[in-house]
Amino acid sequence: MEILANTVIHFPPRLSKSRLLKSNSVCCLRLEGHDNMELPLSSNGGSTTKNDNIWRLFREAQQNILYVNKQRLLVMEELNKTKKEKQLLLDEIEHLKADKQTAVGKYKLSVSSELLLRIDSMVLTGMIDIKEASELRRLVKDYRIEVADLFTQSLHKEDMELLAELRYLFHKRKKNGYHIIHICTEMEPVVSVGSLASYVTGLSRALQRKGNLVEVILPKYASLDIGDVQGLRETEMEFYSYFNGQLHANRVWTGVVYGIGVTFIQPLHYSSFFSRERIYGYSDDFERFTYFSRASLDYMVKSAKKPDVLHIHNWHTAIVGPLFWDVFVNQGLEATRILLTCQDFDSQCLQQPDKLALCGLDPSRLNRPDRLQDNTKTQLVNILKGGVVYSNKVVIMSSIHSKGTIVHSLSHGLEPTLAIHKDKLVVSPCGIDDSIWDPSKDKFLPENYIADNMKGKAVCKAALQKHLALSKHASTVVVGCIFSDVSDVDLENLKAAIWVASRRNIQFVFMGASKTPKINRELQLFEEELKDENTRFINKYDEALSHLILAGSDIILCQSFHDAVLQVPLKAVRYGAAPVAITFNDKEYIRA
């Protein structure tokens, strides 16, 4: 209404009386309601003059009406525009409120994790004993939100002041949830090589949102990405761990990642173990990760941690299982249980039995068929097998295979062991982080959508086509293809598949790069050779664009349905695109 009030509509000048009536002639008109009234009519051309005046009046009235209608439409357009701008502002306010609530939640988790790390420091410096440390940790876990609100302004205080405030709140404690500690070699985004990193982070965040206390212990690699680690600091005290017949000093670093308390263990004598360029792939990987596994358990005992669940991953920390039950269980960890997760059974780590003594295990006790002795190469011990045997539960990650298929066809020699322990095997599909991969709230999409209302997906498709300069036709099929490493694909057959799409007028979007410069160069040359207006190559992984490709594509081509790294098939289903497992070595597909 404010716009209407401020809008001035200009009408053409009104006709004057002199323009209507000539001085020398007077029209004789019959007026409505005055049938007997007549005006004098000039005898010379009176009829012509009357008709001209009537038509002139009609045309000018018509022009006035058109002008008024035009102005009214302009005002309505302006009003609608204002309404849209108002709605956009309201939506932006709602998004800001939601972001603020999320940020507050993350901050409160960070405060709780920082408090737990301060309690660890108090134990290491001898300020509190093991029993009190355990009680204070439970207090922080059970009252995470309340404690975070109370201690936001107290984290800068000295340990003695902080301890006094924690003791004051101790009388409110009660047990809720579980205390879970991951001993692992990767965690996104701090150190990420494969699917393990995203699995540890996603699972930890989900468990913590449900009221559980989750911590992660990692090696302090030289290549850590510490940009997302809040409050990273070195603790004052060192602790010692056993390896190769001696006790060795370690430094402890603590920080918070996505609200999760993370402890980094840094060996001093064996400093070269984790100061290398790569994470895996060295001849002494067994020694490196066995040292870390033993040091993690020594640290837990030293800092009086008594988790409900100790979660270990793949062969790299599977040695924790035998170590826990043979060495540590009677050191205050009687109530703790071991959970092993295997991303796959491809890598199991076979070693000479006498190497088990490096971390304090007895080779003669463990080199048996029902324990660590390898099922095929009986002169060696199998570290992953030891993890399976000595864990209370074993989770196998697979999105498409049943337990039976994994045990009988994909166990890589572990079938006899898995068959014996089948009751504790659990197959779990690879999951995705709902806080990141959800089209109903994805911040990278121009318009969000849900399964019951897919209009937003059409908007995303148009946005993808516009972003990549593809022709905008809603009926055109868009095929997306996202690879973590093009080196795994037969390049010639990939080219053939793209030629097929080109001939069928399909829009093809390919995202991926190779670690081999030669392959990247070949892809670039192929793109120049193709010169197809319906094909686009993105020669690097772009997080924001990957969201748009998933939302804007009708079909997503996948290397396999069991994609544990990028989890493209699961994301495709979530975003309303049909995942198609395609092997580019499939000649029949290429001929089709």
- Can you count the helices? 19
Rounded to an integer, what's the Rg over CA atoms? 37 Å
Mean pLDDT: 82
Distance between the termini: 62 Å
The portion of residues forming beta strands comes to 5-15%
Record field, number of beta strands = 17
Helicity, in percent?
A: 40-55%
Main sheet: strands, sense, barrel: 10 strands, mixed
Class based on secondary structure composition and strand pairing: alpha/beta
Low-pLDDT runs of 5+ residues are 1-43, 584-592
Globally, the shape reads globular
Write the layout of secondary structure elements.
Layout: H1 2-6, H2 17-20, H3 46-124, H4 130-142, H5 144-151, H6 159-169, E1 179-183, H7 195-209, E2 213-219, E3 230-234, E4 239-243, E5 246-257, E6 260-267, H8 285-302, E7 309-313, H9 320-328, E8 337-342, E9 350-351, H10 363-366, E10 381-382, H11 383-389, E11 393-397, H12 403-409, H13 415-420, E12 425-428, H14 455-467, E13 478-482, H15 491-503, E14 507-511, H16 517-530, E15 535-538, H17 543-552, E16 555-558, H18 568-574, E17 578-581, H19 587-591
Parallel strand pairs: 1-2, 1-7, 2-6, 7-8, 8-11, 11-12, 13-14, 13-16, 14-15, 16-17
Antiparallel strand pairs: 3-5, 4-5, 5-6, 9-10
